[in-house]
Fold this sequence. Notes:
2 domains; 52% helix; flat
Amino acid sequence: MYRHANEISRKALTYIYQQKNASARFQKMTQDLGINERDLTKNLFWLEEHHLVKLSTSLPAGSTFPQIVVVRLTREGTELVSKPEKFSNRFPLDEPTTSTPLHNYRDVLRLLRDTVEADKGIDKKSRRDALASIDNLLEIPITDRKVGS
């Protein structure tokens, strides 16, 4: 099951905030939150890029990518989680963002379709026209190709 990216961010930040010293071991987080390592890793690296967490990593012998060992909230992360309104504004749960993997162009178009459907700022005619265009593109066999090929 794939989760909404903002949902993962909220769960991860709240979990760390509730731990002693605002610090958590990565493996325990994945178990306690029920989020797979891949999705949680991607999300935590994003949170670190935005200065909300600090990651302690290791590079096991023979590995290409670092592994997260410990996650700590930064001062900015702690402040954000402690203010519910700011926290909700930064990570709303009603946006159509996703951590769903995009395997082919059909997946990309479906995500675009979901985004257009959910956008309340698009007038009805423009939305209808955009959805019709996306639906037409979904009929083209090339959309089954892998993204990047």
